[in-house]
Amino acid sequence: MKILFIGDIVGRPGRNILRDNLSILKKEYQFDTLIINGENAAHGKGITPKIYQEFIRLGIDVITLGNHAFAKQIILDELDCCDSLVRPRNMNPTNVGKYVKVIKTKEGTLAVHSILGEVFMNNVSESPFIAFEKSLQEVNADMHLVDFHAEATAEKQTFFYKFKDSCVAILGTHTHVTTADEMVVDGCAYISDVGMTGVTQSILGRDIEEVILNLEGEKTFYKVASGQAHLSAVLVTIVDKRATNIERIKIIQETY
Ligand SMILES: [Fe+2]
Ligand SMILES: [Fe+2]
Asked: What residues have CB less than 8 Å from 137, skipping those under 6 apart?
């Protein structure tokens, strides 16, 4: 079985490059399950019900979020309609949405989790290590995959080595920059950061000039960058409920 996981989709350029390349990715990599991180899908911060529905229509199985999960109030109002949306377990507010989605795959049930790192992160309600320990006790599934949404590589690596035996994949997101440390250890796939799906010449997908103006004290509105974009993903191969391979994928394309 193959799982394609696509890193943080940033704004319209990110959504466009995703939409334009999904059938090519499907043909080339023959994945069975498709998971994306959608925390930046709506104008760089958060997600809306409309964008969520667009993703579902594209055939995406699970959409994970991150520290920007609820940046758009409208998603909080309509969370009940977004069954495949997974918010970080250990993020405030803790009482809305779901923090795990269990899906059926040909290898058995797969639980997709979202956990926030606590280093350099706001709104963290609980240690990621304690939070995920609880999830493992509560969630019954044949396989567990974690989107570990965190800033610090040491925290990501520690999380991986602590939980690798219980998981098929622990995939880092949030920094928006792909790392070249993908590996499989004891049947668990890992990468410190999958990287983003958004405009290449940007500050994490955001307009460069605007970020610099912001430094100088100008009021700014999180303008999404435009121009050439890239899609960042990893393909994880599972055999007998354990990971056997992880491959980095990058697609570059002009966007509009
Ligand atoms: Fe992000
Ligand atoms: Fe983030």
From this structure: none
